[in-house]
Amino acid sequence: MTQMLFRDDAYLRDAPAQVAGHTAEGGLVLDATVFYPTGGGQPGDSGWIEWDGKRLVIATAVKGEGDTIVLVPSEPVSLPPVGAHVVQVLDWDRRYKHMRVHTALHLLSVVIPFGVTGGQISATHGRLDFDMPDAPQDRDAIEGDLNDLVSVDARVSEDWITAAALAEAPHLVKTMAVQPPKDAGDIRLIRIGEDQDRIDLQPCGGTHVARTGEIGALRLGKIEKKGRLNRRVYVHLDS
Questions:
Q1: Would you say the pTM of this structure is higher than 0.85?
Q2: Alpha-carbon distances of 148 from 199, 207, 219, rounded to whole Å
Q3: Is 170:176 a contact under the CB 8 Å cutoff?
């Protein structure tokens, strides 16, 4: 099992760790990691590993067998041996942009209140696919509502719910094709705003900013037709 340090603190940029294993494909498994693995539409983190004066560039991170996270080197090279003590360092600029975009997509799901059939995140923009027959007509209103939610600088926090409790509250699940992430039988929820003035609450395993104000100005991008009842909506970071 890999301890998910990014889950405890999404702002942790580097951390010591010990090499727990190698994969047959040349991947590296640490006992604890700051690297978020590809999942939920969010790309795996990149960065590097340092040990004994050496540096190993990490291209991405993916989920491995069981509860492990595998760091994938950018090219086939010698790995630090099992048991070695290393320091792992994120490409923080890229990760932080992923966090901003991910939280922005949660806001987009509030502004466009239809079921979500898919999504993708990059360091400059993100998109959600909505189960909706017609494209939204007022682009300016959507963009304005998004930026209003950013400007209130609402707190973003997490909570946990049991699978049984979530089954009794199906309205919390906006994604139609993806099962909520689970951990030890419980499901992580991301809350935007306070309980008494809540903007959003939904299951999510990704990394997010601490307040919506960190997202910065948003620009609505293309709206594409992707099937009879599917509309793809893009949102971009302004900087």
A1: yes
A2: 12, 22, 12
A3: no
